[in-house]
Predict the structure.
Amino acid sequence: MSATTTLTLTGARVIDPASGRDEIANVVIEGERIASVGDDSAGLRLDCDGLVVTPGLVDLHVHLREPGGEDAETVASGTASAALGGFTAVCPMANTQPVADHAGVIEQVKQLATAAGRCDVYPVGAITQHLAGERLAELGAMAAVGVRCFSDDGIPVASAQVMRRAMAYARTWDAIICNHAEDPALVSGGTANEGELAARLGLPGRPHEAEEVMIARDLLLAEGLGARLHIPHVSTARAVELIREAKQRGVRVTAEATPHHFSLTEELAEDFDAVYRVNPPLRTRADVEAIRAGLADGTIDAIATDHAPHAPEHKEQEWGHAPPGMVGLETALAVTLTELVHPEHGEPTLTLPQAVRALSTAPARSRDIPGHGGPLEPGAPANLAVFDPEARWTVQPEDLVSRSHNTPFAHRTLRGRIVHTVLRGRFTVHDGALTDAADPDDGDGEPAVSGQLNHTHLGPVTDPPPAGPTPVEESMVAGAEASAAQEGSSA
Ligand SMILES: [Zn+2]
């Protein structure tokens, strides 16, 4: 009904693991979609010389806290934080208040994300009602509204029988089960990695075996049923081995590691600063090295943040009372580049294309998220991250747009920074700042490409802006619903 705005990102290094592309190229965006990747150029031009263009980043594991925890984060603030981190899709966990254990909360979170317009959101549904570990949640009803993954994340499902039944149901929709992998009896009361250091500090420990026992159990159950299993926040060397062996046996398992677990160690507990308290806890240098090896050989598929905002009045308590968790959306890319791709000491863990795969392509594939993770090809939705791989910046907690500032990377100087984030042809972030045009409810419905006409990088205006809001919702759930709709029964 209206003309389509065309924009060319010129001269960037385009890295697209899904197609194997890694070359200097132009990316032409027409309306919401990619028109071409190569030598062509059309419409407005945005100089991206020296920058890297990749599929938008995808985070399998975030906590957006809404409903119920709005003092720490909201869907709007969390997706703004995601956009600034280069993410175009995130998967919020179910431990909200009320719990996302039925379709109503799932729909509420998706609507809030659509209204904010900054990042696609694919909510994770709870495995059990109220995360109590006993009766299964309404898995069928949630699958019917597009949920592809179920997790009681934060709380392990202790009962092997409940877990096995959940896997059997989830298999009906070929959906994924993700269990918080810490045996609750073994970690009871623990606040730090069990070992010599925790003993010296007088902190009750969480043994690495707690994680490994739970992962081993879940791998065996998934193997027996042919069910899909995703292991969150892998933190121990033996856990990496278990997953590696299971993959070799053909178990349908994927795994994620967090930036904090592949870069920080337990020694940070020494000052009792609760910003470093997290579950599973920061471990040893040997564990960090094993996680890096797991990322390098693909045993660990994805980098996920476990973005866990906590308001200062909660987190700034003494170690034993502060809730576990760290924010991570705005630092994930830079920590990955700094620690894994361009380390100051030692050999790199990942090449830049491998890092992009772990931050975008692999998580999108592992969670069946349509339209994200590439391939960047004509007709695909223009969901893109554009970053400066050389930019150095120092993390200032108060500058984070997340409503919470509990970052373990405070005052660290990192390498690599998001310049632009593009969600279906709209800039959600432009020149490192959030755009207003990202909000489809801003009244004028103009896409950000037309909102940037005053920018000095841009050439002459060739097209009038189209009208009407972006159909975010449609593409958000289309692929997932198609498969879920076949099965309407609820657990
Ligand atoms: Zn979590």
Observations:
- The domain at 6-53+381-475 is CATH 2.30.40.10 (Urease, subunit C; domain 1).
